Amino acid sequence: MRMSRTDDEKFMRLALREAAKGVGRTSPNPSVGAVIVKSGRVIAKGWHRCAGGPHAEIEALRALKRSALARGATIYVTLEPCCTHGRTLPCTGAIVEAGLARVVVGATDPNPKHAGRGFAILKKAGVAVTVGILAEKCSALNTGFNKWIATGMPLVIAKAGLSLDGRLTRPPGEGRWLTCEEARADAMRLRAHVDAILVGAGTVRADDPRLTVRGLRGAAIRQPWRVVLTRGGRLPADAHLFSDARRERTLVFRGKSLRAVLRDLGGRGCTSVMFEGGGVLLGSAFDEGLVDRVHFYFAPMLCGGPDVIGGRGAGSTGESLRLHNVAFRKIGSDIRMTADVRRSD
To answer: Largest CB tally within 10 Å, which of 94, 143, 194, 308?
Structure first.
């Protein structure tokens, strides 16, 4: 059965749905989904569940009722099949051995050393290859991995809950939260998708945060690193980060630059880091051009006082950071804004 572009996009959306199941679970590997189709019908699906485990293509092949069904079928994969021996055997070999006739891929491998090699191996073995189906959506699924594999640096997300005029916190004695419960639950889901959460020493002393993923199904399986940046090392020994059951997941960096800390985290396999404040830390991150995405929750109130972003700031409007791919969503009584950061030329 000959597939049209419309058919390819339909089945790639199913593969994307499979890949989404692995978001927040696979680091430092990417989230990948696969769907096997024969005679216009889905006969198997699979997704990469964890680093070191079978890749999505292998999961899909194992999900077949009979291995012989793979012969002559088409497999849809959100990312170029691997062609090197790592923790697992290369997927290109498994595809060829299974007798799949066609491979449809969303995104090319972002690793410059491997990009396109999987396609070449498959074509040489006589497998038909189609590339670029819903490529942007497939690539966007792994923005952290894409940056990390190419640069060794994690994706940096600046997250904050603030008033409409940029206030980060309430006055002493009034409680910690400006945002509503629904917005805080949404932010907790974001925590579950990153590899590390970074705060400054001032936030530890003032708020004694836990920086854990709580209230989500499966959250106990994978907790992000909790990272503290300090100049002088004056930190309370009884803080949650140093005394709770997950204290081994806390890292303290003393007297190091933000860039050096991010390099260190990248070396540990962290593909994404969320900065949770405060304003001085966020200001430094923006001043140094380290922020890739913003994730701000705006509460419907005006407070006055310190702005969310400190630091030097832009010397002129032309030097300001530009946001693109901006999206707004109402969550409870608050507004969530997400966007990518683009520095002006």
So the answer is: 194
What pTM value is reported for the model?
A: 0.89
User: Would you say 282 and 205 are in contact if contact means Cβ atoms under 8 Å apart?
Assistant: no
CB 137 within 8 Å of CB 106? yes
What whole-number distance in Å separates Cα of residue 81 and Cα of residue 209?
Answer: 41
Burial category of 65 from C-beta neighbours within 10 Å (exposed 0-12, middle 13-18, buried 19 and up):
exposed
pLDDT digits (tens, 9 = 90+) for 300-325: 988 766 566 666 666 677 777 889 99
State how far the alpha carbon of 50 is from the alpha carbons of 28, 31, 196, in Å.
9, 9, 17
DSSP label of 252? E
- Beta bridge partners of residue 151, listed in sequence order: none
| Bridge partner residues of 324 (DSSP) | 340
337 and 344 Cβ atoms separated by less than 8 Å: no
Task: Provide the 8-state DSSP code for 82.
Answer: P
**Extended strands (E) in the chain:** 33-38, 41-47, 74-79, 102-107, 128-131, 155-163, 196-200, 225-230, 250-254, 272-275, 293-299, 321-331, 334-343
Determine the Cα–Cα distance for residues 215 and 76; give it in Å rounded to an integer: 34
CB 33 within 8 A of CB 142: no
pLDDT in tens, 67-108: 999 999 999 999 999 998 766 679 999 999 999 999 999 999
- Residue 57 bears catalytic tag: yes
- How do strand 196-200 and strand 272-275 relate by DSSP bridges? parallel
Catalytic residue among 9, 18, 57, 136: 57
Cis omega (within 30 of 0) for bond into 28? yes
